[in-house]
Amino acid sequence: MKNRIKHIFFDLDHTLWDFDKNSELAFERILNNYFPNIKVEDFVKIYAPINQVCWKLYQKDKITHQELRYKRLKDTFDILKQEITDEQIDVISEEYIEFLPDFNHLFDDAIEVLDFLKGKYQLHIITNGFAEVQYKKMSNSNINHYFETITNSELAGAKKPNPIIFEHALSLANAHKKESVMIGDCLDADINGALDFGMEAIFFNPNQIEVVQSINQIINLAELKKLF
User: Fold this and answer.
1) What pLDDT digit, counting tens, does each position of 59-77 carry?
2) Is residue 1 part of a domain?
């Protein structure tokens, strides 16, 4: 692979940027302010799978950006049997987006791997996350300088796994499919999206979920140093 690859496209959340850890810290701040009776561990245990479902709906254009922000919180508070108004949900939603980039834990070995790859390949980001928030995350965690281009779904007009966003990313990077690889944590959006588009893909699989043998996968980011 390394002999023909010139461009490496990374997903951001759950691949380089430790979304779960940073999200929990943001919610801890919010809950302490508004709902000190709710433990952040209890909240996140319910919120995380709901958020995942909502993001899948958003990726398939079945709900809007605003509906995603509202639904994931409303459903969580409903399950917790915590009364909350729509106005409170709006405030918490805005504060969550504001606070989230303040916490910038990356996955183990992320910086070491980016340092290793930077001189050998052109590095890029393809993300379904909201543009303003993603730029803040990258800037605050001091990784934006590693990447030549950043493609987000808002600017591309489509979300992974739609081939339009991959086409947009390649055009922006002045890259070709056969010399590019996608690295991400989501089988549907990142891996199958890239493979269906005609790009190679590497599944970042720290939770070691079972996948078909034909899919290239890594359990930790440090493994990329062996592949490239």
Assistant:
1) 888 999 899 999 999 999 9
2) no
Q: Beta strands 180-184 and 149-152: pairing type?
A: unpaired
Q: How far apart are CA 104 and CA 18, in angstroms?
A: 8
Asked whether 220 and 206 are in contact (CB, 8 A), the reply is yes
Report angle CA 57, 72, 207 to the nearest 5 degrees. Answer: 75
Structure tokens at 81: 């049997």
41 contacts: CB under 8 Å, gap ≥ 6: none
Peptide bond into 161 cis (omega under 30): yes
- 82 domain-assigned: yes
Residues 61 and 71 reside in one and the same domain: yes
Structure tokens at 78: 């409903």
Query: Residue 130's pLDDT is what?
Result: 82
Identify the sign of the CA torsion 105, 66, 135, 97: negative
Domain that holds residue 112: 7-17+106-227
DSSP, collapsed to helix, strand or coil, labels residue 129 as coil
CA atoms within 13 A on the CB side of 1: 17
What are the backbone angles phi and psi of residue 109, rounded to the nearest 5°? 70, 5
Task: Based on the fold, state whether residues 212 and 118 are members of the same structural domain.
Answer: yes
